[in-house]
Design a protein that fits this description.
The protein has helices at about 25-50, 200-205, and strands spanning about 55, 55-60, 100-105, 110-115, 115-120, 120, 130-135, 145-150, 155, 160, 175-180, 180-195, 210-220, 225-240, 245. With about 250 residues, it is mainly beta. The strands form four sheets. It has an eight-stranded mixed β-barrel with strand order 3-4-7-8-13-14-12-11. Strands 1-2 form a two-stranded antiparallel sheet. A hairpin with a 2-residue loop joins β5 and β6 (about 120). The two termini are about 90 Å apart.
Length: about 250
């Protein structure tokens, strides 16, 4: 059955008929008013003594204070959320540097010069006792990318180069890079001989974990072409973070 939403008219309220009050009724009314006045005075006295009621509610005494409990403090900002504190970023603990020297297993040391690519080829220092750090790659202590250092294995004029020692290096040995105040250690993980035309595949990649890549020539010397057929690639992974020279941490 559908309900109707039309409003219901209000009921008609008729005023009561006036009542005639006789002398006895007036006297009774006076007595009632006197009694009501006395009751109101009594209630007022009780209210003044702290035992009364107000607006229909009963005031309960405050709970006793608990020893050691903090006393709440009123504030003009009650209910507001305090602003967040702005922190200061801590200084980075990571050290990164351009290597100026390399120390191979056994203690042999050579200077490291910055080296750039020229026409797609890495310009290795002509002095075979020096090696070149590729300035387009990672630095020592970086979190990612290959740090590539290349050097000559020998020279027709100068004889054997510093990196001829890579032919005797073994997995698990340690290589150290240094500058004037820092050092970074790397442990050899792989030694590979690759064709010269395959050298760029992954060797200079700047993605992936940080690693040290040492490059020199190896294999048969091609007199007609004027160079070696293959490259020796030694890869080493960092041992901890770069640190100040002399630090034991």
């Amino acid at each position: 059955m559908e309900q109707l939403n039309s409003p219901v008219p209000p009921a008609v309220v008729r005023p009561p008929a006036p009542t005639r009050v006789g002398p006895s009724a007036v006297g009774a009314a006076v007595v009632k008013i006197a009694l009501l006045t006395a009751a109101l005075l009594t209630a007022a006295l009780l209210t003044g003594a702290g035992c009364g009621a107000s607006s229909g509610t009963t005031s309960a005494p405050p709970p006793p204070a608990t020893a050691g409990a903090p006393t709440p403090q009123s504030s003009d900002h009650d209910g507001e959320v305090p602003p967040a504190r702005v922190g200061t970023p801590a200084a980075s603990q990571r050290i990164r540097f351009v290597p100026s020297s390399i120390v191979l297993p056994g203690g042999s040391r050579a200077p490291v010069d910055p080296a750039s690519t020229v026409n797609g080829l890495l310009a290795v220092p002509e002095n075979v006792q020096r090696v070149g750090w590729w300035d387009g790659g990672a630095q020592a202590g970086d979190p990612f990318g290959a740090l590539a250092i290349a050097g000559h294995v020998d020279s027709a004029k100068s004889g054997l180069g510093f990196f001829v020692q890579l032919q005797r290096i073994r997995a698990g040995e340690t290589i150290t890079l240094r500058d004037s105040g820092h050092q970074a250690s790397y442990k050899v993980t792989s030694i590979r001989s690759v064709p010269q035309d395959a050298l760029a595949t992954g060797t200079f990649d700047q993605t992936g974990p940080h690693r040290l890549v040492l490059i020199t020539c190896t294999g048969r010397y091609d007199r007609a072409r004027g160079g070696y057929e293959r490259n020796l690639v030694v890869t080493a992974m960092p041992v901890g973070l770069a640190k100040p020279v002399g630090s034991t941490g």
